[in-house]
Amino acid sequence: MSTFMGLAWIDLVSSADSEAALVAFRAGTRSLPQRPRGFAPQVDAVAVELSHGRYRIESWSDGNYEQLADLVVQFAEGTGLVSHAFVALDHDEYGAEHIVIDACDGAVRRAYHYFAYPRDEDTGAYYTEGEPSSVSRILPGIEEPATGDDPGVLVDGPVARATIAARYGVPVAAVDQAAAADRFAHGEIGGVGDPCARWRDALGLAWPGESQAAIPG
To answer: What is the value of pTM for the model shown?
Structure first.
């Protein structure tokens, strides 16, 4: 079964009107670069009220799913309504990636970015034919990752992890554990949302559309 899909959790600033933000987010699909006929972006989204009175947009897409990350960045840059966001893209057998986007201080940047490349079961070699989202080319990272042997680490570091922990209100240790688990995320390729499961648990992200506090829009 194909696992091409995009998922996004977009936390709004405290002053945002959830219904207006949801309308603006959905309308943004019309501004994305258009693909050949039959491949227009297909995005579903709901607004969710969080326990502290703020709102989150949960979104998912399996039609031209890779543009979901572009849509989130466009929404953040164009509206100023985004505090931070987590985006996961499943590329089926080509791998998976997840991106934490920080926009809390007005500058939209990647706070974390990892691409889970498939690996050879015998040698452990990485198959790097898959390409990261275009967001990796247009959106700067908070800091460069330390040099290592994992080509999937695109944005990471102590400042980045501390930023993520502060935005989501979780311990830095939880972020460290989620990042450490990425080294084994290639083993979860093939299950929708599985490669980013440790991140969803660490940041308290419910499966899109299944939150009890979802607000129809």
So the answer is: 0.90
d(CA 99, CA 112): 6
Our CA angle for 85, 90, 92, nearest 5°, is 175
Picking from 124, 130, 59, 69, the residue whose alpha carbon sits closest to that of residue 96 is 130
pLDDT of residue 2: 61
Q: What is the largest CA-CA distance in the chain?
A: 52
Nearest CA-CA partner of 20 in 79, 61, 77 = 79
Give the type of residue at 104: C
Residue 94: exposure state from Cβ atoms within 10 A (0-12, 13-18, ≥19)? middle
Does residue 212 have a pLDDT over 60?
no
Indicate the SS3 state at residue 147: coil
Tell me: pLDDT of 37 over 50. no
The phi, psi pair for 37, rounded to 5°, reads -50, 135
According to the 3-state scheme, what is the secondary structure of 164-175?
Answer: HHHHHCCCHHHH
Q: Are 144 and 156 in contact (CB under 8 A)?
A: no
Q: Which two tokens stand for residue 38?
A: 């039959």
Decide if 163 contacts 184 (C-beta within 8 A).
no
| HSE of 148, CA atoms in CB hemisphere, 13 A | 13
Distance of CA 113 to the CA centre of its chain: 8
143: CB partners within 8 A, 6+ apart: 155, 156, 157, 159, 160
Please provide residue 125's backbone torsions phi and psi, each rounded to the nearest 5 degrees. Answer: -65, 145
